[in-house]
Amino acid sequence: GAGVSQSPSNKVTEKGKDVELRCDPISGHTALYWYRQSLGQGLEFLIYFQGNSAPDKSGLPSDRFSAERTGGSVSTLTIQRTQQEDSAVYLCASSFGYASYNEQFFGPGTRLTVL
Amino acid sequence: AQTVTQSQPEMSVQEAETVTLSCTYDTSESDYYLFWYKQPPSRQMILVIRQEAYKQQNATENRFSVNFQKAAKSFSLKISDSQLGDAAMYFCAYSFSTSGTYKYIFGTGTRLKVLA
Question: How far is residue B39's CA from residue B49's CA, in Å, rounded to a whole number?
Answer without folding.
Answer: 13
